[in-house]
Amino acid sequence: MSSQWGTLFRVSTFGESHCYGVGATVDGCPPGLALTEDDIQPQLSRRRPGQSAIATPRNEADQVRILSGTENGVTLGTPIGLLVRNQDQRPGDYQDMRRVPRPSHADYSYQMKYGIRASSGGGRSSARETIGRVAAGAIADKFLQTAFGIEIVAWVQAVGERVTHEVDHTTVTRAEVDQTIIRCPDTRVAPGMEADIRAAREAGDSIGGVVMCVCRNVPAGWGEPVFDKLEAMLARAMLSIPATKGFEIGSGFAGSTMRGSQHNDPFVMKAHGLGTSSNRSGGVQGGISNGEPVVFRVAFKPPATISRPQSTVDFDGNAVELAAAGRHDPCVVNRAVPIVEAMAALVLADSALRQHASTLLRSITQQP
């Protein structure tokens, strides 16, 4: 589907990069949850363009409005409508791109699929579409915190070849992540990351990176075998974010180089019950959460739209030299942090409701 996510906690998004507005409808949020725009706006402000010297200069406030589904600051259990106006759209910046598909962008593939496309800013393939996800994810995040005490924190682990392994995922907070504009809480590495992004922009180029995320206090038992395994749903969610190219959970690809004796997570008794002494599984075993922190990484490619001239062809196959106009991020990872958190929250909120339904049915059908 182009617009819908979830089974019980369902989200539909709408809008393109340069249309009147973008937003989402959230259906399945439990009633009685305290919710106002103030619960949603902080995450949108972390995602918005124009927030720092290493982001796109497009100036959008991205103020959210709740259109339906609440009364007196409390959810009703009915669909929640969310809207963010586009106010600094400049479709005229993309006139030359009506006839030239940008290298590694979605212009050509959208044209082949629909026979038409939104040529201004990439339309639905633009990261501006993620506003609806972040707004919906903030609601899911509030539900998860209120009902289960779940904490979801993402941060930039790498920009290009510059990587940090010094962030303690058991304690890191969003406040610590936001201390630097690159959203890397390792203050020894963050300045170099920022410098690499500035260098890429000055060269008319772009650079990729990796976002790491931890979900703490996730109860054991969430996730659905076989095809809706928790890590499978997380992978699907993360790889639906624009510019993503890789997902790994726990030990990830590095685990393939280890022996079982090295990789296994032995069980131990903890204060809350059984746990594991290590967490190479990333908090998921057999597709179901095991009570340990859910830890995963998402790889983002360099943004496709760059200002450096590129040799390519137009839709008729004629050779052209393309230097993209418009306002674009030289690296997306710092603004992707709240998007990753939002998609993780949507997956976990849906998993929570599915597990609650399963538990309720079990209590009805099982004899005492």
Brief summary of the model shown:
This protein has 368 residues and is an alpha+beta fold. The protein has helices at 37-47, 107-114, 130-148, 174-177, 190-202, 230-239, 260-263, 333-365; strands at residues 4-5, 10-14, 21-27, 64-66, 70-71, 74-75, 80-85, 151-159, 162-163, 209-216, 244-249, 267-270, 273-276, 284-285, 288-289, 294-300, 310-313, 319-322. β14 (284-285) and β15 form a beta hairpin.
Question: For this structure, what is the CATH class?
Answer: Alpha Beta
The total of beta strands comes to 18
Low-confidence stretches: none
Helix content: 25-40%
**Which homologous superfamily in CATH is the superfamily?**
Chorismate synthase AroC
How many domains make up the coordinates? Answer: 1
CATH topology-level name = Chorismate synthase, AroC fold
Mean pLDDT comes to 92
The structure class reads alpha+beta
Q: What's the tally of helices?
A: 8
Q: What is the radius of gyration?
A: 21 Å
Q: Which architecture per CATH? A: 4-Layer Sandwich
Largest sheet: 5 strands, antiparallel
Strand content: 15-25%
Give the helices and strands as they follow along the chain.
EEEHEEEEHHEEHHEHEHEEEEEEEH
Which shape, going by the Cα principal axes? globular
As laid out across the biggest beta sheet, the strand order is 1-2-3-7-4
